[in-house]
Amino acid sequence: MRIVADEILRVENLHVSVEGTPIIKGLSLTIHRGEIHAIMGRNGAGKSTLANVVMGHPAYEITSGNIFFKGEPLEDLEVFQRARAGMFLSFQYPAAIPGVQVGTFLKKSVASVRDDPPKGRAFRKELTAAMEKLSMDKSFLSRYVNDGFSGGEKKRLEILQMLLLQPHLALLDETDSGLDIDALRIVAQGINEVAADSACLIITHYQRLLDLVKPHYVHAMIDGTIVRTGGPELALELEDRGYDWLEVTA
Fold first, then answer.
1. How far is Cα 205 from Cα 102, in angstroms, rounded to an integer?
2. Using a CB cutoff of 8 Å and minimum separation of 24, what contacts does 179-185 make?
3. Does residue 20 fall inside a structural domain?
4. Residue 29 belongs to what domain range?
5. Distance (Å, rounded) from C-alpha 146 to C-alpha 143?
6. Measured between alpha carbons, how far is residue 207 from residues 116, 128, 151, 189 in Å?
7. What DSSP designation does 94 have?
8. CATH of the domain at 34
9. What is the pLDDT along the chain (250 residues), one digit of tens a residue?
10. Cβ burial 22-51 (10 Å sphere, 16+ → b, else e)
11. How far apart, in whole angstroms, are the C-alpha atoms of residue 7 and residue 70?
């Protein structure tokens, strides 16, 4: 039996609305340290809503249910407090920040989240090691954040940020979107490294990322709730059969 200390995220009978429209309708989920969970479903099923509401996006209203992070309720924590507590969200469409260099952005990000961030040479050493893992050239650091970046470059930057922030919970919203096979492999390598000692929730439409990042559990989501949970084989079945058969059996 697992001990409670291993529990990172617990979602209990969650209901969420946006501008009065119900999106998540009774969803429950528990993720422990070292586990990788994947959620798959059609567009509009509520997958991204789940990630955003866990991270505290103000546009989403929790109408009932609870979310716990490492055993503590999240309802009173602001977004920055959740980040400092060890939560990380990668965006499906990362925003550009013209005028802000990547190197400065990463240094400020680490300083704002870690209680004792590395300084000077120690930070540069850590940054260089993380960039080497992702096959990123040092010239990347002088560019402006996501300004003119390709899809693959945007996703690599997010994974680089994740490696440096060392979160307890990583929420990855369609991180595989727009990646070619080489970029996908590099991104998967970064996810696997972080997931070894953290909890990871991957939102994806496709099996191909899950060939490289092996999930412990795959959840099929339809109309705001999880209707089927299985192992990696469920992702293969969903890619082969789609979701209609789950609507019949749900």
1. 29
2. 179/151, 179/152, 179/155, 180/152, 183/152, 183/155, 183/156, 184/208, 184/209, 184/212, 185/212
3. yes
4. 4-93+168-249
5. 8
6. 38, 31, 19, 16
7. P
8. 3.40.50.300
9. 344 559 999 999 999 999 999 999 999 999 999 999 999 999 999 999 999 999 999 999 999 999 999 999 998 899 999 999 999 999 878 889 999 999 999 999 999 998 888 888 999 999 999 999 998 999 999 999 999 998 888 989 999 999 999 999 999 998 887 788 888 998 899 999 998 889 999 999 888 899 999 999 999 999 999 999 999 999 999 999 999 989 855 5
10. ebbeebebbbbbebbbbbbbeeebbbbbbb
11. 6
Q: Are 7 and 30 in contact (CB under 8 A)?
A: yes
Tokens of 31: 């993720």
Q: Is residue 227 part of a domain?
A: yes
Please name the residues in contact with 163: beta carbons below 8 A apart, sequence gap of 6 or more. 130, 133, 134, 190, 193, 194
Residue 163 lies inside a defined structural domain of this protein: no
Q: How many helices (H) and strands (E) does the chain have?
A: 9, 12
Q: How far apart are CA 143 and CA 52, in angstroms?
A: 28
Number of domains in the chain: 1
Amino acid identity of residue 197, one-letter, is D
CA 231 – CA 99 distance, rounded (Å) = 44
Position 103 in a domain: no
* Residue of 250, 209, 215 lying closest to 234 (CA atoms): 215
